[in-house]
Amino acid sequence: MLLLAVALVVFPGCLGAMTQLMYVIKGHTLPASFSGLEKKKIAVVCVSDASAYGPDPLTYSVSNALGIKLARGLKDSSVVPVSKVEEWIDTHGWDERDFVALGEGVGVDAVVAVDIASYTIHDGSTMFKGRADVTATVYNIEKEGQIDHHYGPKIFEYPKTGRPAIQTTDRQFEAMYLGQLVIHLANQFCDHDKLDSFASDAIMNY
Questions:
Q1: Which domain holds residue 134?
Q2: Is the pLDDT of residue 41 over 90?
Q3: Is the pTM of this model over 0.90?
Q4: CATH number, domain at 144?
């Protein structure tokens, strides 16, 4: 910080560059789109077209990863482990749409329900490009399932320009895409650094 201050005095023409450098060092925090999950006990559940026909690794991965992100990003909140949610679903013949029953069953204040449709990680036969139609809804279990927040449906694509299939495997790319999708969803509920999205785009398009 001292060196930056000296540089601004000695090289006043560098003010613009130094301002940008300070921005990079300090970052820029963006507020969550919805802050109503603070100080709540939360369950996260993800459903898709495929999950209606049995166990679905996609929805389990998203539920688990998003739950972890919310637990880390919402310091005064608690998130029910996805294993407990899955156990309740398995033992109660859940119909995948009664989120109030699920929330009451696992004893939470709110349920974050993610619905994924039209999911793919391929763009033709030679390119990877993740694409999913995503909806996220917050059900207030304390208020009989009142919808406190609704996001989507929104098409989430990553990366914008695609990636040649020869550079990675299906499993590696899918893990990367789902990681970005989870970050995107978590940002709806947690304050976050704007620079994170710039960094992820730069890494993916490298």
A1: 29-204
A2: yes
A3: no
A4: 3.40.50.10610
